[in-house]
């Protein structure tokens, strides 16, 4: 399916060093005071797709930069904790939208008090990570596309594909470059039309097989309907996403966890997660999805939060098989 658009030109992004001088102007600003305890890095961490994600940067000063394609257009957001408040600055056509959504993004709609730990390990993980809150981006495609890229491949392959596709077909994010080093400029992911026009060989060069690229093409052709899911209850949102062939429960859960801030969305169908949950809660590293769901049953309504805490505990079984081979289909 990706080959249908092979002969049509794809718009190329404007080089970062030619950005409009207006992009470097002072952006719109907002301050939000989160409830304590609060950990900004934990809240926004799930939005980062690998250490070289071109849409996300985190710096030693505690600042986090994100570039998003909002309903109002491209935007760049910088957030940093100052004392008890989070200070935010945003640039671009999507700046006002990003600042309006800031509290939701930072977990204002989340209710960690609804969570009651039932296992000693989870109790300890919550004690060590009291500032965990679940973010809600209100944006579907920015989580859906990288989640599709992560289907049935290593994270290394998926992160590489996301990086290549965004840098090649996206556009430099508005506002200043977040870091002093050359080349650290953020990029906004392509719009739905540009995703649809990426030729088959560009997907291949990024290491994306036809099954995953076709799934993305089907999703971006109904982008508006996909984005509507961000305003739905998580179960309805997941059902909306799963109407697209190639999007199943695993992908839908990964998306609504981020776009909808869903505290109960469990990632089923994962290669490693059942064994991690089984090992942490019952000493069963061979647990399957059914066993995982049974172990998480006491956390009904909060199973995603329980999973986050278990993963943050670091209690994972020792590896007993070689890592999954990293493929490079671009060389085939």
In a nutshell, what does this entry contain?
The protein has 332 residues and is an alpha+beta fold. 38% of the residues lie in helices and 11% in strands. It has helices at residues 40-44, 95-100, 102-105, 120-128, 141-149, 155-169, 192-197, 200-205, 210-220, 223-228, 234-241, 249-259, 273-282, 289-296, 303-313, and strands at residues 28-32, 56-58, 64-70, 73-82, 85-91, 171-172, 187-188.
Please specify the SSE layout and strand pairing.
Elements: E1 28-32, H1 40-44, E2 56-58, E3 64-70, E4 73-82, E5 85-91, H2 95-100, H3 102-105, H4 120-128, H5 141-149, H6 155-169, E6 171-172, E7 187-188, H7 192-197, H8 200-205, H9 210-220, H10 223-228, H11 234-241, H12 249-259, H13 273-282, H14 289-296, H15 303-313
Antiparallel strand pairs: 1-5, 2-3, 3-4, 4-5, 6-7
Helix pairs in contact: 4-15, 5-6, 5-9, 5-12, 11-12, 13-14
Task: Report on this structure.
The chain is an alpha+beta fold. Helix content is about 40%, strand content about 10%. It is built from 15 helices and 7 strands. The protein has helices at about 40-45, 95-100, 100-105, 120-130, 140-150, 155-170, 190-195, 200-205, 210-220, 225-230, 235-240, 250-260, 275-280, 290-295, 305-315, and strands spanning about 30, 55-60, 65-70, 75-80, 85-90, 170, 185-190. It has a 5-stranded antiparallel beta sheet with strand order 1-5-4-3-2. Strand 4 (about 75-80) and strand 5 (about 85-90) form a beta hairpin. Helix 4 crosses helix 15, helix 5 (about 140-150) crosses helix 6 (about 155-170) and helix 11 packs across helix 12. The radius of gyration is 20 Å and the shape is globular. Mean pLDDT is about 90; it is low at about 1-25.
